[in-house]
Design a protein that fits this description.
alpha+beta; Murine Class I Major Histocompatibility Complex, H2-DB, Chain A, domain 1; Immunoglobulin-like; nine-stranded mixed beta sheet; five-stranded antiparallel beta sheet; binds 2-acetamido-2-deoxy-beta-D-glucopyranose; endosome; endogenous lipid antigen binding; membrane
């Protein structure tokens, strides 16, 4: 009998925070990767994530989770965690066995990887929770568990059908799995969210700066707006001319920093002479409703500064020199067109 028990949890943050970011669901998931090198050597790696924040590591020898945050652990949370740990450990062992037993039947080829993502979704109101489990083979979705049943993924082919057929016969496992993802998991998640509230809801203001990227062509500029160090992840960044959004704005991926904050680069390909007057506008929940605006400074402005400062200085020096010569030759300043007395 198989005991395949995995948990992926998606939860909305509780509490009446009015920021849009906190209306979004956040997820908690346990991810397990089993690498099969040959019929005697495998490797297991596991971790747990609350949305995109890693909350736990996993000791693959004992099957225990490793807390990565100093959040208080209520014993309710600990109980829930121990259940999940037990299931995950059993699951890993079973899953490894099943895949190794079916290498030929399912046409698996060494080396290969099997990934599991397990969790539950708890709506903002706390009443509607949905749990799910997904298994991938070589990075492609293979099967998923929903409504007490294993379903093949469209891309999984006949292998996915074989896996589902086998897993669906195991009613005990499926009942256990169902209980886990619809009951233990949401409870554990709620306690985790509560314990980690301060860290999870922490806001960090972005810093921004502008630069140019590699020139896209003659007479063109690639303007790049960098936004860094913000939390939470949702952010709006747009190149603007006055109040007008520039449709050519290209948004990159939001990339993680190691400290849990984010980085985003947004670029605009422009004719160099049309770049004047552009700005990069950043909207983020940490900015308290006040957008951050970064104005593009023409590189020519250095030339303007030069003209505005150096030219008058040269003129002034010329005038001083002329006056001095005048004073020297005539002793009294009675130079033509310059009656000082
Ligand atoms: C399995 O792979 C490991 C190294 O990856 C190797 O040391 C071992 O001999 C292999 N075992 C078999 C049965 O091929
Ligand atoms: C356990 O995890 C470590 C990395 O954390 C890895 O190097 C090691 O190979 C893993 N062992 C097994 C048996 O999967
Ligand atoms: C949890 O804590 C309460 C009191 O804080 C205690 O009465 C209860 O026995 C504890 N449960 C477990 C399983 O430790
Ligand atoms: C889940 O299963 C129940 C009964 O087994 C059925 O009534 C319900 O429609 C199913 N839901 C979905 C989304 O398939």
């Amino acid at each position: 009998m198989l005991f395949l028990q995995l948990v992926l949890l998606v939860v909305l943050l509780p509490g009446g925070d009015s920021e849009d970011a906190f209306q979004e669901p956040i997820s908690f998931q346990i991810i397990l990767t089993i690498s099969f090198y040959n019929d005697s050597r495998t490797q297991n790696l596991g971790s747990a994530w609350l949305d995109e924040l890693q909350t736990h590591g996993w000791d693959n020898k004992t099957g225990a989770f490793i807390f990565l945050w100093p959040w208080p652990r209520g014993n309710r949370s600990t109980e829930g965690l121990m259940k999940v740990e037990k299931l995950l450990y059993t699951c890993t062992t079973r899953l490894r066995q099943v895949f190794q037993d079916h290498v030929r039947h399912w046409h698996l080829e060494y080396p290969f990887q099997v990934q599991l993502a397990e969790g539950c979704k708890l709506l903002r109101t706390g009443e509607a929770s949905v749990g799910f489990v997904r298994i991938a083979y070589q990075g492609e979705d293979l099967v998923s568990f929903q409504n007490m049943t294993w379903w093949p993924s469209p891309k999984g082919g006949s292998r996915a059908h074989h896996v589902c057929k086998l897993f669906n016969q195991d009613h005990v496992m499926n009942q256990g799995l169902h209980t886990l993802i619809t009951d233990s998991c949401p409870q554990f998640l709620l306690s985790l969210l509560d314990a980690g509230k301060e860290d999870i809801q922490r806001q960090e203001r972005p810093e921004g700066w502008l630069s140019t990227g590699p020139s896209p062509g003659p007479g063109r500029l690639l303007l790049v707006c960098h936004v860094s160090g913000f939390r939470p992840k949702p952010v709006w960044v747009m190149w603007m001319r006055g109040e007008q959004e520039q449709q050519g704005t290209q948004r990159g991926d939001v990339l993680p920093h190691a400290d849990g904050t984010w980085y985003l680069q947004t670029s605009l390909d422009m004719k160099a002479r049309e770049a004047a007057g552009l700005s990069c506008r950043v909207r983020h929940s940490s900015l308290g409703g006040q957008d951050m605006v970064l104005h593009w400074e023409q590189p020519h402005s250095m030339g303007l500064v030069f003209l505005a400062v150096i030219v008058p200085l040269v003129l002034l020096a010329g005038l001083v020199l002329w006056l001095w010569k005048c004073w020297k030759t005539h002793w009294r300043p009675q130079c033509t067109g310059f009656p000082l007395e």
